[in-house]
Amino acid sequence: MTARAIHPGWGLAEIAGLFALFEAVLWGLGPWVSTPGGAPAAVALYWLAAVVGGGFILFLSPMVLHRDPPSARGWGPGRSRDDPGALANAWPAYLALTLVGAALLAAAAAIRDPGVLSHIRWRALATKLTLYLIFAPIQALAFFGWLQPRLREAITPLLGAGAAGRAAVAALTAVLFGLAHAPNWPFAALAAAGGLAWSWLYQSRPNLVLVGVSHAVLGTMVHSVLGLYTRIGPFYAHPEGHILRNVAPGLRALIGNLY
Prior knowledge:
- By secondary structure, the chain is mainly α.
- The protein is 70% helix and 0% strand.
- It contains ten helices and no strands.
- Helix 1 runs antiparallel to helix 2 (39-65), helix 6 (122-159) crosses helix 7 (163-179) and helix 6 (122-159) crosses helix 9.
- The termini are far apart.
């Protein structure tokens, strides 16, 4: 493994900075985007923030500053076939996790609404799943492929690389993943639970594609089967102003009130 270029504690400052940027975009630009007078400037700032944040998470931090190997970041060339996170080695574990999560969500939905199957809007479910398959891998990259390695770098010198260190990394990753879904607290709690399971599994079998697919399936079930809203930030109470409906042409007509 190539030596890191900077002190691992720097990653905590990176997390704080990127989380602040995320919250500023969500709570600051989000409502502004839906305001007719401010929309063009807000949309431009949104895409600027997305490019800057995405470039930092995708390239500058993992590949330049910390020099994460592909086996740690869960994507990119250079992964061998015997890598535990390689698709052929990792998919059974992710499938098992997803099936268990789906069974629990289905049971909760049946308890909440015994006639749940007759109330599912299958076309909306398919659209939701399609959108999730786009956005869930992005979230997986941000939280498990970037944030989690930064936490691991900071925690391992304190707690070691054994079970205690892994548990601390998984717990902190899950907490931050859950908080990113505030103030939709029921959804945030489910996100934290899923984040804990994904984080624990990812540490031994890092594969962002499989995390993204698992997230997409279970997130779709939370919304379309269990019946919980998946909106976050200021859009939790105001779905008509959801930022994703306003930053890309045609997306408003596609997603409607799917969040």
